[in-house]
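Sequence only, no structure available. Ideas?
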Amino acid sequence: MLKDALVKEGEITKESFTTYEILSACIWKSRSRALNLDLEKIAALCIVVGIRHVLDPPLPEGYYGNSIIDVYIELTTRELYESSISDIVKLVKKAKKKAYDKSYVEEVLRNMERMIKEDVKFDEVVDGLLFMTDMRNLAVFGSMDFGWKEPVNIKGLMFQESANNMGMILAPSKLDPSMESGVRVVMTLPRDAMAKFKQELDAMMLMHLRPRF
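Reply:
I predicted one. Tokens follow.
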């Protein structure tokens, strides 16, 4: 519904932007507001992009591990607040394209190898960082049969230390017909921030979905 509303308003074209890109923009902005982040600090969105289909040479047949790369968008919290959803959506799309650039992929892989060799340790993840991943298209969510037919509902698990910085988009549960054609979003936030997060999303939906006269 939100995607269709943005198209109607002329802010985006339906063919140009994905559900993931629009959801990521809405969630990033609403989460930052809910956490009441410092306006002058950096808010960063980490986009997890699958690159299996663009690798050259390709992965060996039968490889079933992850084939992903991270790309980042950084804005001050103030810039994020002042940006429209369509502006943020365009930034998400532009960032995703970087993951398909061979030189960018090679640079990231070199850095990963270096960090593994040097056993680099990371400080605690800050509130201003959000990882967004889309798990709707994993084969296990639709076509895998472990002997008791296809799954009807799957939930993602997160490490406790990173859960507050992770957003996960999942396919709708087949147990609930009202969710057909929709998506589920898994988020972990402090209790008071979660209530504010819902308010921010509801307000955003109301702004874009209310009737125009």
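The first helix runs from residue 2 to 8.
Hope that gets you unstuck.
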